[in-house]
């Protein structure tokens, strides 16, 4: 008569630790720590190199760093906000068409086309904006100045070349459109089907179903996509540098030839010939852009976390 020895029972709540699990957990933790180290290294480099510009005297830097950076901050935020205002509603509509209106084959092809827009190099967008969109915008700028000139945004006089902040904003809107669309599309496709079917069963039209069941579920995704697009617009360099006619003025006039530069474009244009304190000033402006981008992402994270309670199943 043989007896079998019972294997010791594993305590409840303590899964067996496999070698692969430990390796994966360590790799994931190391990757997270590496990201923090790289971010801290970039911040430390910017702070160290920008310190001479921050502490420079009036004789070395007339007006101080704030006078130099203020128009750049204004131009950066203005162009990014224009792009976000134009691109976000359009991206949401495209995402809704792909996810809830278009036939499957058309939706799949359209998704590929929209995603391919993100692969186009920024210099190509810059060439398109400078040589095609800018000349075409002259007539629109003239019309805006004639009929809507009482609005400060279109006060004029309109630029004869079309190299204006309005054109920059439109080009940036096209550049961030695929980012926002991709995020919104995936979120809309994950909307609970039971909620959609329940709304339709109660007599709601397709738009009412989208407004009541899809958009509330995807609100956090829309915000996340918009913030990702905003980060791309804030840091865009070559397209802005190729299109914008810079005067250094702080103005909200979008159609005139006097336009503030952006931080990234100014660094790209000035850095190759910079030397001495000028290099530190440019790096200091890069530090400001770094802080702006960091604050934008923190704000997006805060907004998304506030709406985290709505999971679509409650």
Tag the structure with descriptive keywords.
71% helix, transport, MetI-like fold, MetI-like, cell membrane, 10 helices, phosphate transport, mainly alpha, Phosphate_Transport_Permease, 314 residues
Record the SSE blueprint.
Blueprint lengths: L18 H36 L9 H38 L2 H14 L4 H26 L17 H25 L3 H9 L4 H30 L2 H6 L19 H8 L6 H30 L8
Provide an overview of this structure.
The chain has a single domain (21-306), classed as MetI-like (MetI-like fold), CATH 1.10.3720. 71% of the residues lie in helices and 0% in strands. It has helices spanning 19-54, 64-101, 104-117, 122-147, 165-189, 193-201, 206-235, 238-243, 263-270, 277-306. Helix 2 packs parallel to helix 10. The chain is globular, with a radius of gyration of 26 Å. Pfam families: BPD_transp_1.
CATH A-level architecture: Orthogonal Bundle
CATH class: Mainly Alpha
Estimate what percentage of residues fall within beta strands.
under 5%
User: What percent of residues adopt helix (DSSP H or I)?
Assistant: over 70%
**What would you call the shape?**
globular
Pfam family, one: BPD_transp_1
Function: Part of the binding-protein-dependent transport system for phosphate; probably responsible for the translocation of the substrate across the membrane.
Transmembrane segments: 31-53, 65-98, 110-128, 134-154, 166-189, 209-230, 237-257, 277-300
Main location: membrane
